Amino acid sequence: MTGPGITPKGETPRGGARVPHKKGAGNDGQGSVWRDSARRAPAKRAGVERAASERAVAERGATEHVSAGRGGAETVLRSGVPASGGLTSGPAHLVVPVEEKEFGDRVLAAGEETREIRRFRLAVRRSQDEINALRECLLGEPSDPGLTILDAHRMLLDDQDFQQRVIEGIRLRHRPAALALREVVNEVIRPLEAAGSEYFRARSADLADIRRRVTRHLEGTPATARLVPPGAVVVAVELSPSETTSFDPEVVRALVTDHGGPTSHAAILARSRGIPAVVGLIDFSSHVREGDRVLVDGHRGLVVLRPGPDELRDFEARRRREARRIRLRGERGAGPAVTLDGHPVTLLANIETAADAPNVVRTEAQGIGLYRTEYFYLLGPHLPDEEGQYRAYRKVVQALKPRPVVIRTLDAGGDKFAAYLGTPREMNPFLGVRGIRFSLSHPDIFRTQLRAILRASAHGEVRLLYPMVSSVEEVRAANAFADEAAAELRREGIAIASRLERGVMIEVPAAVGIADFLAREADFFSIGSNDLIQYMLAVDRSNEKLASMYDPFHPAVLRALSYTIDVARRTGIPVSSCGEMSGSPSGAAVLLGLGCTSLSMSPPQLDEVKTLVRQVSLVDLRRLADELLRKATTDEVHAAVRAALGHLLDTNGGPGAPPTGGTASGRGLGTEGARR
Amino acid sequence: MEEQVTVRNYPGIHAHPAVLFVKRASLFKSEVSVSNGSLTVNGKSIMGVLMLAAETGIVLTIRATGPDESEAVTALVKLVDSKFEEGA
C-alpha cells in the first residue's frame, strides 16, 4: 500500500540520510532524521545545512564507537508505512505466533477427554466474544479483507460440523484439544493451499488464524498480550487480528510490523486505540533481539533499532521539542482560529478511513474538508458494495454532525483496478483514466458510490466532491449521474438530503484555465495543491531526483492559486484548499494571503496551523501575497516569506520549509499516493 | 433436485462469498450439499464450503432435498451466478 511519496522502504544507511543540501529552502540545521522537518519530502527531509559533511563525519565516528561497544550490534534505521502517530521508545518485545510453539504429539490419558472437550467449548465461546468485540471496532471500515475473514471465523466457530470434528478428534483419537483443533483447521485449509490462485493461498493463512485464537484461549494464556513487558514496543512479522486485539494500550507502547499497510488490522486498531504504530517494515523484525531498544516515530513511519547516543540525543530533543511546541501551542494557540485582525479561518481535516473520524471529533476541526474514498477500492478482492460504503460514510457523518463532511468520489488511476476489472495498464497513469474520468467511464461503480454518499447525506451535512476535473462537460455529466441517483433513491423511498452541494477539485491546470466556467456548474471549489503543483510544474512528486523542483512557491503555482481563488470570490462560491500546502504554516499563510480562508489538512497539523493563524493579521498576509505574486523565482518567494514570517515559522527549527508532496506530514496517510 | 453452476466471481468462493452462501443456504429447511468434482460438502457448513476451494471457472453441483428444495437450489444458483452481488 505504499504510495508514491511515502518514504522509500528499506534500509537507510547510517549517515546516508545526510545528503548535500539541495537549494535554499530554508533548512536550518536539520541534520538528523529525528529532527523535526516533517513537511519535507523524503529527499528534502534528508537535506541538511551546508556544513553537513563535517557533521556527518563527526557523527559517524561516534556511531562506530557505539557499535564496537555493543559487541557489533548494529544500529538499524528503517522507514515503513506510518500507521498511527506518536513518538515513543521502549525495549523490543518479539511476538512469535502461538502455533509455532510445539504442542507435542501427546495422547490424552483415559478419562481426560471430557475435561478436554469442556475446555475446547469454553475456548470457542471466549473466541466468539472476542470476535464480536473486534467486529464492532472494525465495522464501517473500508472493505478490508479482515472483516470478512472475521465473519468467516465467527461462522466457523458456530459451525456444528467444525466443532464436531474437533470433538471427535478429542474423544475418538484422544488428542489434546489444541492438537485436535490444529488437525481440523489444517484439513479445512489444505485445499485452499493447493488452489491455483495466489489470493486463495494467502487467505488460507487468514483462516488459519482461527486456530491461533482458539489455541490462545485453550492455553489460558492470552499469550501474546500477557507476556508483553509493560512499556515494550511490540515487534512482529505480522500481527493477526486475534493478537492485535489482545494488546492492552496501557501496556504496549508501540506496534511495529514487517507486513501490513495503512489499513491493515494492526494499523486501524492501533489508531483507534491511540498506540503509535509503523507497519510495512519488510524484514525489520529479523534484526531485533528481545529487549533491544527501539525508537518509533509513528508520524513519519520511522524506526531505529539499537540507537546510538547521537540518535537517542536527537530523539529526546525532538520529543522535548514536540512537548514544548504542544505547550506553547496551548498558550498561543488557545482559542478560536481567528487572525489578529479578527478574521475567522475555517480549519478542516483530511481523512482516509472511517476510523479517523473519532480523532477529528477530538480536534477543533470544523469539519472534514476531504474524505478520500480510495481505500474502499484498493483493498479487497472485489468492488465495495453500496451498503458497506454507506455504513462507513454514515459513521463519519454521524460522528461529525453537525459539522460538514466533504466526500470525494473515487480518485484512483485505472491501473489500480487491473486485478478485478481487467483494465489495461496505462503508459502514464498520471495522465490516464484517473478520478472523474474513471468514474464516468465506469457508470456502475460510480452510481454505487453516489448512492452510498447520497444515503449518508440523510444523516448530517454531506458535500460531494469530484476529483481530476478538466472540463465543464465532466462536471455536467457527473452532476447528471448524481441527479439520477438521487431521483432513483427518492423513488425507492430512501431518505436523502434535500440538496447536496457538489464541488470540483481544482488540481489540473485545465481546470484553473476554465475556473470561471466551472464556477457556474459547481457549488464550491477545493484546490488540490499536491496534484496542481505536479501538473503545473510537470514534476513527478515521487521522483526523488526532482524533489527540489516540486515547490508550492513556484511563481506559476502562486499565479494559478491566485487566479482560482479570485474567480471563486468573484463568483461567490466557497473555495478551500486540501493539499499538503494547507497543512504547513508557511503554505497556509500564503493561501490565506491569496484569499483562501478555508484550509483542510491532516489532523496532526491542525494545531500548528491554528497557532499561526492566531499570530498573523490577514491584512499583512494579503500584502505579503501581493508582493509574492511579483517575484520571478521560487527562491525569491521563499526569501520573502521567510523575511515576513520567519519568526513565526521557526518553532521547529526550520523556517517555513515549503510543504512538499509526499507523506512526510502527519500520519503520512495523507498521501494522495493512494491514487496511483 | 440439483443444478450445476459456474463460479463467476473473481477469485472464487473465498471467505466472504462462503459466508454469504452459507447464510443463504441456512434460510431453507432442505438439506443442502455442494460438490466440486468428487468432493461433496454440507452447504450449510462454512467449513464445508471453504473446503471446496471453488476458484473462478469451477463448476459446482448444488443439491437440495427437503420441502423447499427447488427454491433452495434456485436461490443458491442465482447467488453464485450473480457473482454474489445480489443483496446479501
List the helices and strands and how they pair.
The complex is a heterodimer of chains A (676) and B (88).
Chain A: E1 10-11, H1 42-45, H2 52-69, E2 76-79, E3 81-84, E4 87-94, H3 113-138, H4 145-158, H5 160-173, H6 177-193, H7 198-218, H8 223-226, E5 232-236, H9 241-246, E6 252-257, H10 265-273, E7 277-279, E8 293-297, E9 302-305, H11 309-332, E10 346-351, H12 357-362, E11 368-371, H13 374-378, H14 386-400, E12 405-408, H15 418-421, H16 435-441, H17 443-456, E13 462-466, H18 472-491, E14 501-506, H19 509-513, H20 515-521, E15 524-527, H21 529-537, H22 555-571, E16 575-577, H23 585-594, E17 598-601, H24 606-613, H25 618-628, H26 634-649
Parallel strand pairs in A: 4-5, 5-6, 6-7, 10-11, 10-17, 11-12, 12-13, 13-14, 14-15, 15-16
Antiparallel strand pairs in A: 1-2, 2-9, 3-7, 4-8, 8-9
Helix pairs in contact in A: 3-4, 3-5, 3-7, 4-7, 5-6, 6-7, 14-17, 17-18, 20-22, 23-25
Chain B: E1 2-6, H1 15-25, E2 31-36, E3 39-42, H2 46-51, E4 59-65, H3 69-81
Antiparallel strand pairs in B: 1-4, 2-3, 2-4
Q: What is the CATH architecture term of the domain at 333-659 in chain A? A: Alpha-Beta Barrel
Q: Specify the biggest β-sheet of chain B.
A: 4 strands, antiparallel
Shape of chain A: globular
Classified by CATH, the class of the domain at 333-659 in chain A is: Alpha Beta
The structural class of chain A is: alpha/beta
Distance between the termini of chain A: 10 Å
Topology as H/E string of chain B? EHEEHEH
Fraction of residues in H or I helices of chain B: 25-40%
The greatest interface here is:
A-B, 32 and 24 residues
Give the number of DSSP strands of chain B. Answer: 4
SS summary, helix count of chain A: 26
Main-sheet strand order of chain B equals: 1-4-2-3
Rg of chain B, Å, rounded: 11 Å
> For the residues shown, what is the average pLDDT of chain A?
78
Number of helices of chain B: 3
Q: Strand portion of chain A, in percent?
A: 5-15%
Q: Rg of chain A, please?
A: 26 Å
Strand content of chain B: 25-35%
CATH second-level architecture of chain B: 2-Layer Sandwich
CATH topology of the domain at 333-659 in chain A, what is it called? TIM Barrel
